[in-house]
Amino acid sequence: MHCPFCRHPDSRVVDSRTSDDGLSIRRRRQCPQCNRRFTTIETASLSVVKRSGATEPFSREKIVNGVRKACQGRPVSDDDLAVLAQRVEETLRASGSAELDAYEIGLAILGPLRELDEVAYLRFASVYQAYNSLEDFEAAITALRAENEEAEARRAAGQDEPADQGTAAAE
């Protein structure tokens, strides 16, 4: 790491800490030449492979901007969008892949977006799941209704847990 003050090609790490989100490391460094200290932040890079084949660095901001369009006119705050983008990034990093297809990122957004707002989910899904007709929308809405009714029936019966977890806990 070059010193930002004197451009000396080396520096010594004085202190290392994990950042708040746990996805980066903050390091305090000291230059052996001028003895000045500076901070660096290190992150593992994620690359996005676009449809054109071009590769660019992953950006949470692009997720927020894309989802913001789907959430237009919906009761979704900027904080909600930031949390969604963080959840998506954590999911993508957990996959272990350093290069991700842009389509995979769109699909990774669907789950958290559905939990956040179902109308925004349908808007976003219409692009990433290539809804071509009204029947596609009707099928998606029918599936959402069925899952909501099933979840409501479980809540009414006092079964908040999925069935296989509940049986394991009873044993």
From TrEMBL:
One of its GO terms (molecular function) is ATP binding. The keyword tRNA processing does not apply. Binds 1 zinc ion. Negatively regulates transcription of bacterial ribonucleotide reductase nrd genes and operons by binding to NrdR-boxes. HAMAP family: NrdR. A zinc finger (unnamed) spans 3-34. PANTHER family: TRANSCRIPTIONAL REPRESSOR NRDR. Residues 46-136 form the ATP-cone domain. The keyword Zinc-finger applies. Residues 149-171 are annotated as: Disordered. Belongs to the NrdR family. One of its GO terms (biological process) is negative regulation of DNA-templated transcription. InterPro entries: ATP-cone_dom, NrdR-like_N, RNR_NrdR-like. Residues 149-158 have a biased composition (Basic and acidic residues). This is Transcriptional repressor NrdR.
